[in-house]
Amino acid sequence: MTDLAAVRVLFVEDSEDDVDLAVRALKREGLTPVWRVASAEAEMRALLREAPPQAILSDFSMPGFDGVQALRIAQELAPSVPFIFLSGTIGEERAIEAIRMGATDYVLKNNLRRLGYVLKRALAEAEDRERVRKAEEERARLVEILEATSDYVGMSDPEGRQIYINTAGSRLIGRSPEAILGQPIFDIYPAWARDIILHEARPRAEREGIWEGETAMLDGEGREVPVSQVIIAHRREGSGEVRFFSAIARDISERKAYEAQLKYLANYSPLTGLPNRSLLGDRALQAIAHARRTGRSCGVVVVNIDRFKRLNQSYGHEAGNELLKALAGRMEAAVRAGDTIAHLGADSFAVLATDLARDDDVHYVARKVIDALATPMALEGRPLHITASVGASTYPRDGEDFELLQRNAEAAMHRVKAQGGNGFQFYAAAMTQGAVERLELESGLRVAIAQKQLLLHYQPQVAIDGGAIVGVEALMRWEHPERGPISPAQFIPIAEESGLIEPLGVWALTEAVRQLAEWRAAGQRLRMAVNVSARQFRSEGFVEAVARALHAHAIEPSCLELELTESALIDDRVQADRLLAELKNLGVLIAVDDFGTGYSSLSYLSGLPVDCVKIDRAFVTQAAKGGRDAAIVQAIVSLGHSLGLRVLAEGIETAEQLEFLSQQGCDEGQGYLFARPSPASGLGALLAAGRLGPNTIQEKQ
To answer: What H or E segment, with its residue span, contains residue 23?
Structure first.
């Protein structure tokens, strides 16, 4: 409401007396004007720009400046300010014309009693117009915001007819505003969502003012679009009657798709599309509960593809993945409709066999899987025969929960694997003891590292022509305080699986180099061979560890030979080549250990920066008897020499083997025929002699 106690008035008047009379008239009507006077155009313009008044009272006729001009100036500079003609000369026709031109009203100077009333009414109307203008501006801004938002915004009357929809909403439902306005809003929802809107959302919004939830809307082609929605009931002030409902909806298709993807990845293998271990566990709980209620049985079958790692190395990871997908399809087709085939990871699968009449019935499920894998497959155009190691456990005989059943089935599978694979076994209680012993060995090995229970034995490497000792191989031994000596065949695989091989390898390397430095200081010109596991070879900082050990004991790099298996060099050839190059830059020697047992070829070996090939003992043992093994040894020696490599035979135990190797031109050998591995303290005499041969070999224990 306008404050009448201080109304700002601009008089456009050339008579001070007329202004005085007008002011008195306004005061008599309770108004307290604060006025300024302009009698010329320039003056009026200046005052309007300086401080716009709340009302303009203008004479109609003035010398050199008339009211019509003043009206036009007011419309230009203060269009919302009431303009009232206050004149003694204006006639009725001219007054009507002035109002048509935009004047608010007119008052004759001889009737100033009307002035207060006219001004009050003009101020009130101006205030109303300003209020409406601001409301319209506010509404326009709101509409602009609603039209700019990417969310659906719609309004409907209490009967459910659409009265507004923004551009984003129209785009979401695929219909123009003209096509939807006045139509029932429920038509834009699928049937299930329509029920929610009708019976839950709008009633709750009417009761509580707001409803929030997830529904769906239909796009222009009738497809469901999932939305997150808010519905608000807007009420009239005073009566509380609902005037309209507003709805805001956001398309959550991407979020729903992402959630579905996360749910899928949480329950299925992204490679094979089969259920994963988590989903298999959930289904196993249901199968066990069913078996418990019905008195029947269920079982878990674990399937591990034999030699898959080598297949992966030979054909590549991409081909290996395709093979796994094909195998998954075969196994899925082989199991019964109610069973679940799951991909546990890498080359391992599992089958949950449900509703079995007898425990032994799980064998038939396993047999179907084995038979499905037995049919040859084509990989990169080559026929491929696949075998698997399969173990099974059954409820309740082998366990009453999924974790135990799976663990026991895996134990059975590992027993098959240890026996050469390509077979099936049920779980047996004795196998658990083996698993416990394995865990105890791992725990003991951790203690052994900390308490320095490990030591190195050394086996001489001898020149076959002449018997000169040219080097020694460092071999790790474990003296357990309670069990006594533990074979490397027992603890090395455990160390590799648990990751302990890395600290063990660093210790062995450092200790071997230290011992070499001690022997060389005593005048022994030896080469030290140290075994390096594939995991240690690829571990971060391995090359730096070799350099530190050599530097710490001032050993020439060429006196150290690192023995790597074929598998360590085949897996990830790019990384292997880089690491070998770094080691060769140091100057150390590289030997390929157990050559002939893997997949090496002439072209592969020729590309490696190696210095020595070691023939595996498996070939040496039977080589003297001729046949296949003799031919393999001959080929390895010939291959090595053609590539300029030194050839060393392992496991020489008889004079006949030595003679055969000498005939083939093998350079070096090691084995019980020359000397057993022994602590450094036990090699003093042998190393001092500097030579070993059939007539000077150490007696076998």
So the answer is: helix 16-28
State both tokens at 146: 């609603």
Contact at 8 Å (CB) between 503 and 450?
A: no
- What are the phi and psi torsion angles at 559 (to 5°)? -90, -5
First to last CA, the chain: 118
- Find all residues with CB under 8 Å of 479, minimum gap 6, and list them: 453, 454, 455, 485, 486
In tens, the pLDDT along 147-175 reads 778 899 999 999 999 999 998 899 999 99
Please state, in angstroms and rounded to a whole number, the distance separating the CA atoms of residues 524 and 468: 12
Q: Which of 658, 610, 671 is nearest to 475 (CA)?
A: 671
pLDDT in tens, 4-61: 668 999 999 989 999 999 999 999 988 999 999 999 999 999 999 998 899 999 998 8
Question: Which residue type occupies 253?
Answer: S
- By residue count, the chain amounts to 701
Give DSSP secondary structure letters for 243-294: EEEEEEEEE-HHHHHHHHHHHHHHHB-TTT--B-HHHHHHHHHHHHHHHHHH
State the Cα–Cα distance between residues 616 and 597, nearest whole angstrom. Answer: 7
Identify whether 396 is preceded by a cis peptide bond (ω within 30 of 0).
yes
Contact at 8 Å (CB) between 267 and 256? no
